[in-house]
Every structure is written in C-alpha cells, then in structure tokens.
Automatic annotation (TrEMBL):
The keyword Signal applies. The keyword rRNA-binding does not apply. It comes from Rugamonas aquatica. Keywords: Signal. Pfam families: DUF3304 (PF11745). Residues 132-151 are annotated as: Disordered. Residues 1-17 form the signal peptide. This is DUF3304 domain-containing protein. The lineage of its organism: Bacteria, Pseudomonadati, Pseudomonadota, Betaproteobacteria, Burkholderiales. It comes from the Bacteria.
Length: 151
C-alpha cells in the first residue's frame, strides 16, 4: 500500500512540473462561412463561391454569412480570384451565370461575402462583419424609393 501512495505522490509532483508551451499549429488556409448581399431588385435563387454556399437572397437583401463553408488563404495575395456562380431567375426561367472575380484585399481571415450589383457586377470581400453591418467593407444595399406622381 505504501508503494501505491508513493507512486501517486511522485506522479502528482511530476504533473505540476513546468512544461514548455505547445506551439499553436497554423495552417495556410482558414475556414469561412459564405454570405450573399444583393444590391439588385431581383431575387437570387442560389449563389456559390468556388462551389461552396448555395443560399438565396431577396431583392435588396443582406444577412450574416451562414452557409457552410469554404477555405480561404489566411493571408491575402494580389490576383486572388474565385469562381462565383449564381441563379437570378427571370419569371419562372432560371438564369444561371458564372464569373471569375478578384477577391478584394483583406487583413485577416473572416467570412466571404458575394455582393451582387446590376449588370452582373460582382464584388467579393472577406470580413467578420455581417453584410448589413455599417462596419462591413461595402455599404449595405439600399432599396431605391419610387418616385410617386412623376410621369
């Protein structure tokens, strides 16, 4: 029995000994949620970035990036591009398009947002701010006010 108590005491003291901190393992890529921000008056039925995403967005809509998921480089580099594919139906007819888009410069990893503008203009940003947030790199969409009484 004495040997068991001695063993437990030695193990307990050894557990309290100072240890070198384990270096944090860093990978070249980070996981990112995918978000859509729609600056048009048309419904987006689905949109993906490099095949990830798939959500939909109402006209003039913005939300948090809540579609799983894609990988992005932890460090932005010039010429970084992604393939954006989207379906913006006209009536009951699917209109599927795709475009290679340059990712705008970012300082730290975050979520990836696709911004859709009229005439198939698309911007892609990486940020930790929701698409409707005032701290988002691109201002949120604003639905134009209809001019009443103008002929």
């Amino acid at each position: 029995m004495k040997w068991l108590v001695s063993l437990i005491a030695c193990l307990s003291l050894g557990a309290c000994a100072a240890r070198e901190p384990v270096p944090e393992r860093t990978t070249a890529t980070a996981t990112a949620q995918v978000g859509i921000v729609n600056h048009t008056g048309n419904f987006i039925y689905s949109a993906t970035v490099d095949g990830s995403g798939g959500g939909r967005m109402s006209a003039w809509g913005a939300a948090v990036a809540n579609m799983c998921c894609t990988s992005i480089p932890r460090v932005w580099h010039p010429g970084m591009k992604v393939l954006v594919r989207w379906n913006m139906p006209v009536g009951t007819t699917d209109v599927i398009k795709e475009k290679i888009v340059e990712v705008e410069k970012y300082d730290k990893p975050g979520d990836i947002y696709m911004h859709f503008f009229p005439n198939d203009e698309i911007r892609v940003v990486v940020t930790n701010s929701a698409g409707y947030s005032q701290s988002h790199p691109i201002p949120p969409p604003v639905e134009p006010k209809e001019k009443s009484g103008v002929k």
